[in-house]
């Protein structure tokens, strides 16, 4: 059984689509938890009409939490089932999704983290993004672990993530201090606990990238929460091989961040040096690209970025 959590903050044009995609699932053993985060566009009034003791729980928070993370954590605490499924208020599930994910959990009983492929909708076009699915679409559904997450392409977003409640509570849920990126940080912290995941080779959700009031449009993304999480973990844990894997992953995120900061004329060298791990064991294209970005004159680095050389 699943507890489905939807945080709501000023998503009135989209919220009915998301809710209906849950309520009309072919598998009906679920509860839907709606947490309004102080909406002012009519979303609050709409969800207040949906309270249903058997199927739908509606909660209200007066102060919006950045990124919806506090609302999701609140929903986790109110949930009654063992599997927690997340859906953003402007996204949509295929109607067979919960049945498919239930079947996946039974096929891979050691998994405590479930995910699947998804479409993205942008500028009136639906596309399959160049993430994990395109690289593995000819493979059957399978287990994944931390190493897969660190080295392969993106395999999970919030709208397709399903995690056991006990695991979420053990890592204390989403980090509410961040305005953006705490979802990626949560997936990492879950997998750092040694949790195994299962990936479904099936597209069964749609992520809408042109919705109103999107966090990705409204919040500046300076650094990823993952980077300090990795630093903290490495000070306390980690064997030699895991240490190298995590350092390379942090370097990749740092490289991406430094490029973004450089393009937007923000101080970038200090951030880059703070989170980059300098070690001969981490030597790869990203390592060399980072060195070029921070040591070349700014104009030269921007030129190479524009030419897609860096």
TrEMBL record:
The chain crosses the membrane at residues 286-305. CDD domains: Glyco_tranf_GTA_type (cd00761). Keywords: Membrane, Transferase, Transmembrane, Transmembrane helix. The keyword Membrane applies. GO terms for molecular function: transferase activity. Coiled coil: none annotated. Residues 3-168 form the Glycosyltransferase 2-like domain. The keyword Methyltransferase does not apply. Signal peptide: none annotated. This is Glycosyl transferase family 2. It comes from Mongoliibacter ruber. The lineage of its organism: Bacteria, Pseudomonadati, Bacteroidota, Cytophagia, Cytophagales.
């Amino acid at each position: 059984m699943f507890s489905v959590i939807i945080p709501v903050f000023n998503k009135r044009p989209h919220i009915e689509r998301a809710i209906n995609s849950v309520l009309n699932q072919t598998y009906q053993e679920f509860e839907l938890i709606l947490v309004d985060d102080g909406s002012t566009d009519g979303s609050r009034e709409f969800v207040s009409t949906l309270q249903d003791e058997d199927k739908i729980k509606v909660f209200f928070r007066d102060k919006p939490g950045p990124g919806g993370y506090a609302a999701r954590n609140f929903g986790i605490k109110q949930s009654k089932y063992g599997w927690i499924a997340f859906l953003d208020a402007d996204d949509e599930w295929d109607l067979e999704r919960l049945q498919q994910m239930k079947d996946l959990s039974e096929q891979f009983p050691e998994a405590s983290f479930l995910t699947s492929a998804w479409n993205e909708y942008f500028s009136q076009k639906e596309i399959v993004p160049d993430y994990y699915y395109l690289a593995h679409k000819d493979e059957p559904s399978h287990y994944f672990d931390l190493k897969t997450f660190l080295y392969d392409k993106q395999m999970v977003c919030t709208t397709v993530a399903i995690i056991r409640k006990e695991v979420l509570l053990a890592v204390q849920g989403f980090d509410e201090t961040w305005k953006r990126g705490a979802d990626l940080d949560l997936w990492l912290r879950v997998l750092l606990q040694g949790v195994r995941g299962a990936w479904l080779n099936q597209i069964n959700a749609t992520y809408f990238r042109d919705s109103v009031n999107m966090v990705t449009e409204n919040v500046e993304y300076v650094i990823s929460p993952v980077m300090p999480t990795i630093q903290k973990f490495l000070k306390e844990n980690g064997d030699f091989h895991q240490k190298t894997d995590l350092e390379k992953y942090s370097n990749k995120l740092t490289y991406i961040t430094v490029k973004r900061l450089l393009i937007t004329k923000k101080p970038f060298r200090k951030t880059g040096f703070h989170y980059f791990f300098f070690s001969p064991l981490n030597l790869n294209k990203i390592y060399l690209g980072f060195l070029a970005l921070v040591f070349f004159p700014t104009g030269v680095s921007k030129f190479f970025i524009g030419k897609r050389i860096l």
